[in-house]
Amino acid sequence: MTKWLSGFLLWLCCWPLFANSLDDVRVWPSDDKTRVVLDLAEAPDFSYFLLKSPERLVVDIYKTGQKVKLPLKVDDSPLISKVRNSTPKDKGSIRLVLELKQATKASLFALAPAEGNGHRLVIDLGGDGPTGSPKGSSQASPSVKPPAPVPVKAPAQGRDIVVAIDPGHGGHDPGSIGRHKTYEKHVTLAIAKKLQADINKVPGMSAVLTRSTDTFIEVMDRADIARQKKADILVSIHADSVNSAQPRGASVWVLNNSRAKRVIGKWVDEKDRHSELLGGAAEVLEDTKQEQYLAQALLDMSMDHSRSVGQGIGSTILKELGKVTKLHKNRPQPNSLGVLTAPDIPSVLVETGFISNPEEEKLLANGWHQGRLAGALAQALKEYFTAWPPQGTLFAQQGSKRVHLVSRGESLSVLASRYGTTVSAIRHANSLKSDVLWVGQKLTIPSN
Q: Domain named LysM: which ranges (predicted)?
């Protein structure tokens, strides 16, 4: 949503063209792989080589400036610890050094702009790329030149859907404590790690944690972490507790209307943080005389979109959780919880059960039950994003290849509504000259 708003305003204001530049560095770690994405203004002309003792990956990007601030410390990757600058080969280029924790395989390829994303240089560590320094590179002899720029053909592959998983509480904040001394902070972290593993098995999806150890994070900082990771959704994991031992069952919470309005007002006033939510659109707003009104409108639209997605995902989560555990509420419940207040990131809070209920406390502490809960959450996220894939993702590209077999009584308008697209888009995808359909006809359904 934010990217669309940014692009729309940039188009309106006839944004000028600039030379190539490195605009952002994004990192997606998993248990055995790490992906680093460099966002650029134009297609990169680059070369790279690996060095040993210590292990490093060096990337030269030619005829390029740099907007993003480095170094970038990476805490949650098993393969990389830092991305930093080094002395470039010439004044018109930049040199990046990825400090590695171990010898690893590296694969680099460029991606062309696709549905909301610009030019990107993707660095996959731990994949099937070469290991060690290629011929022509040498740590000992600075006079030996690195390899010549590698010609790269961009593969037709979209980005991953990024799920930020937030294990509630942590550190000196234990959360609720059950009768059998089960700590909520331990339950939430265990479920979160299982959910991360399940999501990372789904092609086109990847998961990051706001915390991976027993550490304390401020509530409002959790959304900031998700934003830094470019998350498409924030799922906060909790375990409920009340004074009575009787209530049990899972529930899902979404942001209520009154808190949403207060949050928007706060963000409008904090002009220095507009760029976090609106990207390039914030720079356009600075040049307008009606900045406050435009910011209000854009943030309202972004929040409405986030709440709508959160409501939809929340309903799907409850449907899947109902297959593995009892539900306390069968519909998403509105609340003013702080972790849900990011205008630009759809967010839901999942109460996995009542730790104050002795029977449910035992279940929540059980690894097998935790796995079932995580599996249900992963299935719900996969199901929702299959139906409503974010632009530029692999899910969206796969969705564009869907084929529908026409049944009796179906029309283009019915199919457009069902698949979240338009009549004209279906007509164009199938080169239809009329809206008349026949039973058994195969139609290609474009992505929404």
A: 402-445
Domain at 398-445: CATH code: 3.10.350.10
Report how far apart, in Å, the C-alpha atoms of 57 and of each of 80, 84, 154, 173, 264 are. Answer: 10, 11, 21, 39, 42
Averaged pLDDT score across all residues of the chain? 80
- Helix/strand/coil for 346: coil
- Low-confidence winner among 99-108, 146-155, 290-299 (lowest mean pLDDT): 146-155
DSSP annotation string for 385-432: HHHSPPTTBHHHHHHTTEEEE--TT--HHHHHHHHT--HHHHHHHTT-
If you compute the radius of gyration of the chain from its CA atoms, what whole number of angstroms results? Answer: 24
pLDDT in tens, 160-192: 999 999 999 999 999 999 999 999 999 999 999
**Ramachandran angles phi, psi of 347, nearest 5°:** -140, 145
The helix/strand/coil state of 319 is helix
Architecture of the domain made up of 161-387: 3-Layer(aba) Sandwich (3.40)
H or E segment at 298?
Answer: helix 291-321
> What is the rounded distance in angstroms from the CA atom of residue 288 to the CA atom of residue 299?
16
CATH number listed for the domain at residues 20-125: 2.60.40.3500
Q: C-alpha distances in angstroms, 152 versus 86, 93, 147?
A: 23, 18, 14
How much of the chain is helix, strand and coil, in % rounded to 5?
35, 25, 40
Closest CA to 422 of 394, 398, 447, 387: 447
Does the pLDDT of residue 357 top 70, yes or no?
yes
